[in-house]
Amino acid sequence: MLLFADISPSAAQFLLQIIIDGLAYGSLIALIALGYSMVYGIIGLINFAHGDVFMLGAFLTGTILFKLDAIGMLPATDSYALVGFWLLVLLALAGGMCAAINLSIDRLVYKPLRKAPKLAPLVSAIGMSFVLVNVGLLWGGTGEYNLPEIISRENLLPEESGLRLNAKSILIIALVVPLMIALLYMVKRTKLGKAMRAVQQNPTAAELMGIPVEMIIATTFAIGGALAGFAGVIDGVTRGTNVFGMGYQFGLYAFTAAVLGGIGSIPGAVLGSLVIGLVRAIIESYLNAQWSNAAIFAILVFILVFRPAGLLGRNVREKV
Amino acid sequence: MPSWLKQLIGIVLAILLPLALTAIGATNIADQITKIFPLVILALALNVVVGYTGMLHLGGMAFIAIGVYVTAIAVHPTFYPFGWHTLIPLVLSVIVGIGFGLLLGAPTLRLRGDYLALVTLGFGEMVKDTLTYMLNVTQGSSGIAPIIFKDPPAAFTSLNEWADWNIGIYYIALALLLGVMWLLGNIERSRLGRAWIAIREDELAAGCMGLNPARLKLAAFVLCAALAGLAGWLFCYTTASAPSPATTFDFNRSVMVLAALILGGLGNRYGVVLGVFLVFGTDQILIPLIDRQLQAQQITFFQLSDFKFMLYGMALILMMRFRPEGILPESRIAHEMHPERA
Which residues in chain B are closer than 8 Å to A124, comparing Cβ atoms? Predict the structure, then answer.
């Protein structure tokens, strides 16, 4: 307790603020990180195109919001029912589109390379990422653009608390936490989840036990894509700035989070994302936002040196 | 045709190329070709890690950036106190490259393939951000330009003279490239090179035969960093600047070099050289040329450069689908990719 004995009220506020900001950002990253982690767990591929699928989700959100604005149907930030309705529509559309994109990428590009050496699908994934970035460039142009705001950025806490907590942060956490619980339930409790874990452990044995491996892989890609689409919507309505390169930036954080937590592990991806969110929040308030990239990767290197399989990953012994 | 004759013809053609381009008045194309040489050396450096040893390295541009900034800081006469002779940073950038290679490689090379790839990627981001934001050491995102090298052959008094020297720079770059090719050709056949390939094929078996994979991997990593430092010196020398780190030494560039390496033929030096000239020749010479032609024809609704990432992406995907071993494959890799042809 000595450590906290002389902690001033402002320092406690500061700490709380960092936790709020870090959790909100980390939850968003977690949605993308899960897509990386699940795909990696099941076919051992770093799906470089995944971040760009997220970018397309955010772009779709932007386009729909602009259309709504143009026809005068953009909901005001205080008409909660309308905002909720459009949010559900956006989630359904972007989730569906991104799931379809991710699924088609797997069928068209990765599936023919299932038996090829590891480098081949990896390079194809990089190629796919280039293609999607180009789609983003043609869709949204080269510059950044701001989306119409449908969720208030007003502080919900009283002024004297000295803390910032707006509807945006609450929305992120309120959407992400149930999604995570649903996903964990699916993987741990349902038949489909059991099949996914079986394919992850040993695809050949799973196939011999009558599990339709290709179906499971397709489902994984669809789920990962849908999560990326949801992340796109959430980012679009909260942060609200789109640029074609955002897929790379978020994808990089998300992939780092997945590796940090132990790639292939769902709780690991979430934990890694929260760590990254918190680190970023700390750096932004103590140092400067521009150093957050460098700090996150320094921590990544540091953790991997001591725990080569990530925070929650298991060390797999290599068999001959 | 014996291989020495092929090499001789290749060298003669490379020597004649800028003269021919100057003769038809396309000096700007010759300049652009000169600027690709550092990337060729970087690709050859990455080939040591990716092609011979079989580790994925996604931070190539970071090591070239280190070389570029070491050179720029050492020679720039006004921004920095050193103002050294051009050849001092040639050695210095290699040494600094080795230092960073050891610093990054020693703790992380035990990691499994994809984890290592991520660490190199992260290192690339760290270097890029550090160069961009350490304003009291670098000039930040504006880069350092122009840098007038004092030599060789003598001090240039004006930028025009500097421009005339361009063809000379081409030959310096070519000589450096040939030197690196010769060096790597010898290393490839040496005990070290054969050990690297053994690790690539089967690390466990190689370890059982008495090779030390950790030390050999570190050696590959450090050689890569050293050659990339050299490439950085050449980059600074050919462009007479240290360009903005955020736009020049970013992940996309690292990946494009890697893609060129794989497109040309992983593990084969000649394939690597061909691949880089193909990819960056298309990127920096062919596409701008076509776009200028289109503009000259009053076609404004279509610019090839708007679609270039799609073009590269499709090229990579199709290549992996139909010829994953590259254009000029290394024999062992070709065999691995197409076991049925053996």
Answer: 316-317, 320-321
